Amino acid sequence: MKGVRPYLIWFAIAIVLAVGAIRVMQWVRAHPEHVPGARFEFEHPKGWATHRKLMNFAGDDAACFAAFDRAKAGYERRPVVGTGQCRASQRMVLTGNALVPTMRPANAAPGCAVTAAMALWTRDVVQPAARKYFGRNVVELENLGSYNCRKIAGRDAQSEHSTANAIDISGFVLADGTRITLANDWTPGDKRSEFLHAVRDGSCDLFSTVLSPDHNAAHADHFHLDMAVRTAGWSICR
Fold first, then answer.
1. CA separation for the pair 121, 61 (Å, rounded)
2. CATH for 54-237, among 1.10.3470, 3.30.1370, 3.30.1380, 1.20.1050?
């Protein structure tokens, strides 16, 4: 660029960088679901940072319950139980089914982080799959419980159930009363199985751990879903 003064070149570069920075900031404001430092809101779509935010809730009771408060989601906190590795301080029961279908039994009381993940799971995975395969929504989630102070079967590591940071889902009940269970409907062959497999596959980028009947015999009748905190944020889906 013969004849162009150097300061004009640097001025043009500065303008381009400034415009680029403004556009990046605008994009960040418009897409908080992709930004790890942006506050989690239930109204946000699922994004690149969603799993990390949900996982962080497992270690931040105040932030997790504040998200439910901002969403005006009715819930009851259950008393803290256990001590040490078996201390569960986030147990909660939703008082309506706006975010998560009615739980059966109703007293499972999974931790806040797991419940938050279940809300997005319901919205983005379970209900779309139910409408696709059956033309109606799921109204009840059958479960095998949440809090259980114990080791992982066959291992010395503590289970996420020890802090209620997990839930075992065994079945789904549709609005017309149709009941779909992992014990009876997992084997491929019809749309019930296709629904269950679609739900399992769609769960993998929300929860830290998803274990299904494909994992081992111990999970033949349920999905194990948890929000285990892992340093690199990786997840397990089997």
1. 20
2. 3.30.1380
